[in-house]
Amino acid sequence: MRWQDLKRSTNVQDRRGMRGGIPVTGGIGLVVVLVIAALTGVNPLQLLGGGAEPGAESAPAGADPMRDFVSHVLGGTEETWSALFRESGQTYREPSLVLFSGYTSSACGTGQSAMGPFYCPLDQTVYIDLSFYDDLKTRFQAPGDFAQAYVIAHEVGHHVQNLLGTMEQVQQLRSRQGEAEANSMSVRLELQADCYAGLWAHHTERAKPILESGDVEEALGAASAIGDDRLQRQTQGTIVPESFTHGTSEQRVRWFRRGLETGDAKACDTFNTGTL
Questions:
Q1: Taking the model in full, what pTM does it have?
Q2: 173 membership: H or E segment, kind and range
Q3: Tally of domains in the chain
Q4: What is the pLDDT of residue 273?
């Protein structure tokens, strides 16, 4: 994957090595930070967010290869989704992305590495502990840079759903349903995000060819590796379809491929299709 050809995003915050990302909502923690800032002349936002300003990309290119990779992939999603939103007469609001180690604060609560990468609609931010990529390679047997890019593109797909109002609609429906039905709605939401990840790859490749031999197979391998059925079989030895929240390996592969092959957002409508 020629990810270096993608735009480098300025919306990455790096909290790695910080103690839980330094929760900043009031209390003595904030007081201490303000005192330190006053004594040293350092911008308090640097102490609170791990960067110069929230969303600022301050690390020089090449200093941290993985941060560079994430920044360029996020930048690629910004270019593609901005163009797609513009074509439909809308404006794309770029999400932030936070790199963290272990755990960090978010508007949706404390994020932990064990949760895997996640998107918080309340602060429109993607959170990822890069150790997940080690798990993707070793535990899930899904190596490759395009597999890693798929993970980011999937979470950005949730951001697109948030901007379009899909997440809110699903949440309202889930609140009125039983557990099995609510889980089914979550599956449809996740599969649409997979389709949007494929959609991103389709349009990015058309605008600026970045894919190399084997890249698509890497993404498909990652999608397959984190299907509910496969994960349940690995962790508990049995499969409980009613408890699925993300979709089977076959479904995740199929919906990612649909977005990749069609490049059509309408083809990603998982909510008005009978068979997933």
A1: 0.84
A2: helix 166-174
A3: 1
A4: 84
